[in-house]
Amino acid sequence: MTNWTDHLVIAPIVLPLLAGTVLVLLSERRRKLRAGIALASAVMLLAVAIVLVGVADSPGDAVRVYRLGNWPSFFAIVLVLDRLSAMMVALVAVLGLAALVFSLARWQGAGAHFHPLLQFQLMGLNGAFLTGDLFNLFVFFEVMLAASYGLALHGSGPARVRAGLHYIAVNLVASLLFLIGVSVLYGVGGTLSMADLAMRIPAVAAEDRALVEAGAAVLGLAFLVKAAMWPLGFWLPGTYAAAGAPSAAVLSILSKVGICAILRLWLMLFGDGAAHSAGFGGTWLMAGGLATIAFGSIAVLATQDFSRLAGASVLVSSGTLLAAIGAGLPGVTAGALYYLVSSVLAIGAFFLLVELVERGREVGADVLAVTREAFGTQREETDPEDMQAVDAPIPGAMAVLGGAFLCCALLLAGLPPLSGFLAKFAILAPLLAAASGGLPPLTWLLLAALILSGLATLIALLRAGIEAFWTSPPTSPPRVAALEAGPIVALLALALGLTVLGGPAMQYMSETASALHAPRSYIEGVLPSSGAPAERSP
Amino acid sequence: MELIVALGIGVLTGSGVWLLLRPRTFQVIIGLSLLSYAVNLFIFSTGGLRTGQPPILPQGGAGNLLEYADPLPQALVLTAIVIGFATTALFLVVLLASRGLTGTDHVDGRERDR
After folding, report:
1. CA distance A126 to chain B (A)
2. Cβ A139–B108 below 8 Å, yes or no?
3. Are A187 and B47 within 8 A, CB to CB?
4. Which residue of A87, A402, B17, B98 has the lowest C-beta tally within 10 Å?
């Protein structure tokens, strides 16, 4: 613990926590100061995340372990920085900053406490990605969910409250399942550390193996509710459609938390090292993913509404990831990780974009006006100031929106030349290469599902785009502040960067995937001399 | 003792699930509370059910684990209780907001058409 980068591992959790706490204490009227603090925190978070990615990607597979309180790893709660967690923290920082900048134009005023909620959301997300302890994961899940309840309800109004009610109830039950799964695993394995658990599972007695698998399945169920696997994902499109644009953009990465947790835990606990339990549940992941793709594609085709379209494409992306992970091949996992980054950027941009397009169509921001009214009258006096910020239409707003929509469509449908296509190709190519003889039927299904879901997305987005931009263009060009268009363009530019730098990015992903499939270095990083208690550093 | 605890958990879970699936928000929240009691008891029992055993080993000696109560599940239960309490309170607020905005206590915000 001498190198300063060692302590940087905890910064993505501490930074938003401090900023959020200060923001709660500050009066709502000091909006410039509040926005400044929130922005500073988000920018610093992004800088830290970039440094962390650099640290994690250093040659040699050593993971960085941060032991809280410097207790030996057998007792300590550890934070673990490897390539996967560094990448996800960076994604969270990017998306958080984009949503924050977007919200500065008007959404921050639609209700109380937007800024602290966003900060706590970022803290929960970062913690959930970094932690190496199951119960700590639960705590960060709850932090993240509590903030997400607030964000989903931000702006209030009957539609949001109704969707929020369902969302909260579903997630509370999922949290209870999470607890049951964790405590069963603890009861059998006697530890909560993921690395330690991975060491102990192969040694579990034969009569207890069913218990371990049942516990893991219940735990997996909790993650799959978050990841919105069919039939556990009916809450998702409605909630995301009802949430405000910046909230929805941040919420869209929540489903990826479940997927990352499954990816890490499944490969660590039931990887090749798990003796008799190896590969437990892989077929279920694959089948569930396929069902989710099918359901998502139908939902994409069936909906006319822009926000629901975005929600349905979250389902498709979740399904694709689950099915690809369920294949259990390092090459396919690498492709899936690339797809994850690409789809998070695209969906985040799409959620932000949807609000701007809808605003143009429904002359005036009536939705926002209604929600303001429902929220209460104490914010009335700040409205004129708000409106001034928006009153700066940039020329060619429609062109920017149309171009951004086109990019989103290409990314989501997986068409060349953008990264969506590369991602699907990166999933499909190793899948075909792996089976030298005949392909197993599930692989054929996955191939078909990936291509057909792209087609369905394309049809739906084309139809919606023609309707929004050509058939019934808005009577007056929508008033879009540069603050709102900026984040969308930035997210899409990142996706473009991901395309151009596809080689290095893919290299990073395949190293991530091979480390996930062979968790030896992770386990040895957390438990330095496996078997003997770790020595206490002075 | 195991039988009584198991039965208790089972009854709480059963009632909780039934209430959770009812259409009124108040029933849902009571169901969630019962379920969280059941889960808390369950976590507590994973450390093994022993009465009158100390949770801390004596200094110097490595005692027999069978003679000690496992303190970790108790710590986990405390955390779970706190978090469960907070989220239930939050749910209660949303429930009241829903009641105020829609004028009904149906979970869908409107009575089902008959």
Report:
1. 19
2. no
3. yes
4. B17
Tokens found for residue A382: 């700040």
Q: How confident is the model at residue A41 (pLDDT cuts 50, 70, 90)?
A: very high
DSSP A363-424: TTTHHHHHHHHHH-STTGGGHHHHHHHH--PPTTHHHHHHHHHHHHHHHHHT-TTSHHHHHH
Q: Which residue segment(s) compose the domain that B38 sits in?
A: 2-50+69-102
Domain spans in chain A, listed from the N-terminal domain onward: 4-376+389-526
| Unique residue bearing structure tokens 């209700």 | A111
Find the CATH number of the domain harbouring B36: 1.10.287
Residue B55 lies in a domain: no
Instruction: Kindly state whether A75 is in contact with chain B, defined as any CB-CB distance less than 8 angstroms.
Output: no
| pLDDT number for residue A531 | 45
pLDDT tens-digit map of B58-102 = 777 666 767 778 888 888 999 999 998 999 999 998 888 888 888
Residue A369 pLDDT greater than 60, yes or no: no
**How far is A111 from chain B, CA to nearest CA, in Å?**
14
- The tokens describing B73, both together, are 């599940």
The minimal CB distance from B94 to the residues A161, A182, A183 is found for A161
Mean pLDDT, chain A, integer: 82
In this predicted complex, what is the ipTM? Answer: 0.92
**Residue B26 belongs to a domain:** yes
* Pairing between β-strand A64-67 and β-strand A78-81 as defined by DSSP bridges: antiparallel
Q: With CA atoms as reference, report the closest residue to A111 among A328, A296, A308, A370.
A: A370
Q: What is the reported pLDDT for A111?
A: 74
How many beta-carbon pairs under 8 angstroms link A with B?
81
Query: Residue A110: which residues within 8 A CB-CB, separation 6 or more?
Result: A154, A155, A244, A368, A371, A372, A375
Does A187 contact B91 at a Cβ distance shorter than 8 Å? no
Bridge partners (DSSP) listed for residue A67: A78
User: Is the pLDDT at B51 greater than 70, yes or no?
Assistant: yes
Total domains present in chain B: 1
Token reading at A306: 């822009």
- Determine whether the interchain pair B83/A145 forms a contact, defined as Cβ–Cβ distance below 8 Å: no
Is A183 touching B (CB cutoff 8 A)? yes
Q: Which residues of B touch A152 (CB under 8 A)?
A: none
Residue B85 falls inside a structural domain: yes
Return the structure tokens found at A466.
């023609």
In DSSP notation, B22-86 reads SSBHHHHHHHHHHHHHHHHHHHHHHT---SS--SSPPSS----GGGS--HHHHHHHHHHHHHHHH
Q: In angstroms, how far is CA A507 from the centroid of its own chain?
A: 21
Nearest to A213, CA basis, from A115, A280, A144: A280
Buried b (16+ CB within 10 A) or exposed e, A159-194: bbbbbbbbbbbbbbbbbbbbbbbbbbbbbbbebbbb
Domain presence at residue B75: yes
